[in-house]
Structures are given as structure tokens and as C-alpha cells.
User: Which sequence fits this backbone?
């Protein structure tokens, strides 16, 4: 689909405004134990982990398109856990910083969906009340935007957010916020770095415990037909 340049421009402006407003909120302190990996987007301190899949969404290096793909291609997806957190790592090409230095634009990496009871009859329907596609059966949606904040005409560094919300059966929307984490938080639960994107999700936020099993899906931005899915057991 070719998007009208003015529409594209408008979306960017609106996203910019949204970020400007949202990034103003103060970071909330995390009272949980610190994550065992440093959340910094560097993969070297990962030792024991599982590979969820080797290509997230679409392989954009194979896309023939004009203008060329200017988004972030999500690649290998890894996970691990300890007593407190589920750790996720998505390798990226280019890195968020590289793309940001090039374009100075906001973007969204995509969405994660968690079906915490592995039952497609509970949780989201195929579409929400606004008609947007979701992943049926999911109880939790995690939105992954990247961009910048601006205050008094000064732009921040390139930021990454995870915005975790629960499906509401009456509104039929993911509109119950569980947690919003920002890479600019002190002791962040989300970060981007030279290898990609790293996140620590609290097991208590996900409502899963040791031995528990759930399904994780990832919807890479713009790759509408390439949803990855895997089941994860908390060890
Ligand atoms: Ca990809
Ligand atoms: Ca479900």
C-alpha cells in the first residue's frame, strides 16, 4: 500500500505531539529486584536463553520497494526468565539509534500479544471495538513506539517505550494500563542498544508464575500477515 505523503507527514506530527505529551509523565519507581541482565540493548550478557524465532515478521532486506524501507527490521527474538522477570531481546537492523540519526522520526516497532491462559476463547477478539486487528485470545497487548520527547524546543535522545495494557471485555479494547516503561527511566525495564531491543517484563504484570505457560505473539510493524507466535513456559 502506498501512503499519501501528506498523510504520512500528519501521522508523524501527531505521533510527535503524542510523544511530547506522554513523555512528560514522571517515571514511577520500581521496587522489584533489579533485572539479572543489564537492560541496555546489548546481548553479550545473555547466556542461557531460548530462541523464539529467527526472523520477526517480514525480512525487509528482501523487500523491493520505492522509496526504500526506512523502518526497523526486527530479526531474531530471544527470551529468558528468572523469579521476577520475563526477559525479551529482539535484534534489530538498523538499530533504533542508527535509524533515528538518519531520519529523526518516530516509529513503532510493533506489538506483542500475550495469551496468558492459552485459550483463544478468552481475551481479545480478532478486532477491537475500533475495528483494529488484534490477536484473538490475547489478554495483554504491549505497544512498542520509539521516538523522542521535546520540552522547551529541546529534543531528547532516541527513546523506546513499552506500553502494556489489558483487554477489557466490556469496552472491547486494550485500554487497562498495566505498566508503561521508558528507556529514559532510571533503572529502565526497556532499552535499545547496539544489538537491538531489550525488555524486562514483570511476571506479576503478566499474571504468570513458575511453571506457568502462555503464548506470546509478535506483530512487526507493517508486516501484517507475518505474525510470529510461540509458547513460553516459565522455568
Ligand atoms: Ca523482520
Ligand atoms: Ca486467552
Assistant:
Amino acid at each position: 500500500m502506498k501512503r499519501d505523503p501528506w498523510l504520512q507527514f500528519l501521522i508523524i506530527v501527531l505521533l510527535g505531539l503524542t510523544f511530547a505529551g506522554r513523555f512528560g509523565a514522571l517515571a514511577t519507581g520500581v521496587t522489584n529486584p533489579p533485572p539479572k541482565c543489564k537492560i541496555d540493548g546489548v546481548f553479550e550478557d545473555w547466556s542461557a536463553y531460548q530462541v523464539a524465532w529467527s526472523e520477526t515478521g517480514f525480512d525487509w532486506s528482501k523487500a523491493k520497494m520505492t522509496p526504500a524501507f526506512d523502518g526497523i527490521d526486527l530479526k531474531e527474538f530471544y527470551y529468558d526468565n528468572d523469579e521476577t522477570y520475563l526477559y525479551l531481546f529482539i535484534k534489530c537492523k538498523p538499530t533504533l539509534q542508527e535509524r533515528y540519526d538518519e531520519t529523526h522520526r518516530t516509529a513503532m516497532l510493533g506489538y506483542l500479544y500475550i495469551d496468558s491462559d492459552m485459550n483463544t476463547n478468552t481475551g481479545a477478539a480478532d478486532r477491537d471495538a475500533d475495528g483494529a486487528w488484534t490477536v484473538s485470545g490475547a489478554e495483554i497487548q504491549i505497544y512498542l513506539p520509539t521516538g523522542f520527547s521535546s520540552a522547551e524546543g529541546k529534543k531528547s535522545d532516541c527513546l523506546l517505550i513499552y506500553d502494556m495494557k489489558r483487554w477489557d471485555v466490556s469496552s472491547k479494547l486494550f485500554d487497562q494500563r498495566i505498566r508503561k516503561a521508558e528507556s529514559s527511566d532510571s533503572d529502565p525495564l526497556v532499552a535499545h542498544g547496539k544489538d537491538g531491543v531489550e525488555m524486562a517484563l514483570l511476571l506479576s504484570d503478566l499474571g504468570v508464575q513458575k511453571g506457568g505457560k502462555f503464548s506470546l505473539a509478535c506483530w512487526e510493524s507493517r508486516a501484517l500477515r507475518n505474525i510470529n507466535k510461540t509458547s513460553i513456559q516459565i522455568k
